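Entry type: protein chain
Record version: 2
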Amino acid sequence: MKKSAFIILGLILSFGLGFYLQSIGTELEEVEINPRNLHSDKQNNTTMKIGAFSVSLSVKDLNTSKAFYEKLGFTSFAGDISQNYLIMKNENSVIGLFYGMFEGNILTFNPGWDQNAQNIDHFVDIREIQQHLKDNGIPVNPEVDESTTGPGSFMVTDPDGNVLLFDQHR
């Protein structure tokens, strides 16, 4: 019974994530992105561009999880089993499978990347995202050193205890 529930939940999440990412892609094509501005004012909605989205899963057995997600249509995209992680993709849905690296699952956002882990020209730097969150009363831990440039990461926790990782690679 639990396996069926997890499979159904996984399918629903994959469908929902794919639909969401497709709608974001369409919206991004219609909006001129200003890399120095966190917000766009499209239809009076304020949005912050936070980068490519994936779910990072803490798994008990990397090979078993890989086989499971392959049955759902995911293929290995990056990573290495010998380094205890794989990144898998099914169309626009991206998941990371991680063994022994962290507890619990993490929602991951990668400023500067598209859903294929390719660099994009215009993006909001992670330090600007961090400052925006802090200005809005969201605790950041650990923080990115704002005197630096380039790669950096920080985490926040939502009201339900879910961890969000913001991880900029360039």
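Comment: The first strand starts at residue 39 and ends at 42.
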